[in-house]
């Protein structure tokens, strides 16, 4: 079956090389191979970008086995297909002015609706290893017991990085909030902080990402769809989060997130 694999898409931009750094670090922690792809109409134009990427990984993470190749096709569709059996797919996204910013956001947004495996969207110029020097922890947004896969991913990621997990529940009307994590932890448990606040989910999570190293949420798979259906919370995080966003496809749940 071979070692696990981390897939990253790059386009030569500063943002995409930040995503490359994160992907290489994740591959090292997972003892996984790293696959670097770029979608370019002209393979000759892709060559310098890919060579620079391979050299960067070799310099910063020499233990990581890396392959790189130009691929034809729509970037979101190509990344979704390459990532179907990957441990993680990584892509960059940044809200910058002009067409470049719109294209970067469009790829990550469409990929979130196509992926069937965990997706990490690295927002802004920050890279995850640099942010983690602040020990901000991993932020986990839970909606229901249907988010067990997202919770498992968050705990496994926290264990890999030696980070804590901050669990955030939100509510906007009087109800009995559920306060237990899904029964998904295995092995040594990371430190956990859990809190429930009265707020809309997207406002609370976006605010909390300012102090987090990563935010993890589930995106529920729907019958008849090839990928998850990112709801308003996921879409808001992809646009406004202050840290990388991990979207974990989960079995169908009762609510849309």
TrEMBL record:
Domain UspA as annotated: residue spans: 53-123, 204-249
- Which residues are in coiled coils? none
Q: Which residues form the signal peptide?
A: none
Q: Which domain of life is it from?
A: Bacteria
Q: Which family does it belong to?
A: Belongs to the universal stress protein A family.
Protein name in UniProt:
Nucleotide-binding universal stress protein, UspA family
- Look up and give the organism this protein is from: Actinacidiphila bryophytorum
> Which lineage ranks, top first, belong to the organism behind this chain?
Bacteria, Bacillati, Actinomycetota, Actinomycetes, Kitasatosporales
């Amino acid at each position: 079956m071979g070692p696990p694999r981390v897939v990253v898409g790059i386009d030569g931009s500063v943002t995409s090389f930040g995503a490359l750094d994160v992907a290489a670090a994740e591959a090292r922690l997972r003892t996984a191979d790293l696959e670097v792809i770029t979608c370019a109409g002209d393979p000759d134009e892709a060559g310098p970008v890919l060579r620079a990427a391979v050299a960067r990984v070799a310099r910063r993470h020499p233990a990581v086995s890396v392959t790189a190749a130009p691929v034809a096709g729509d970037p979101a569709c190509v990344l979704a297909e390459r990532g179907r059996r990957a441990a993680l797919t990584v892509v960059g996204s940044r809200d910058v002015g002009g067409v470049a910013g719109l294209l970067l956001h469009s790829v990550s947004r469409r990929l979130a609706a196509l992926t069937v495996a965990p997706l990490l969207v690295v927002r802004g110029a920050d890279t995850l290893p640099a942010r983690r020097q602040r020990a901000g922890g991993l932020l986990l947004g839970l909606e229901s017991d249907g988010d067990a896969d997202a919770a498992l991913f968050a705990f496994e990621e926290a264990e890999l990085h030696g980070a804590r997990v901050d669990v955030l529940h939100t509510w906007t009307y009087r109800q009995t909030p559920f306060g237990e994590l899904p029964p998904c932890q295995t092995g040594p448990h990371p430190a956990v902080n859990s809190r429930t606040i009265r707020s809309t989910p997207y406002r609370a999570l976006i605010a909390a990402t300012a102090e987090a190293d990563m935010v993890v949420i589930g995106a529920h798979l729907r019958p008849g769809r090839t990928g998850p259906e990112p709801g308003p919370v996921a879409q808001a995080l992809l646009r406004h989060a202050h840290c990388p966003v991990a979207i974990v496809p989960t079995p169908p749940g009762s609510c849309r997130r």
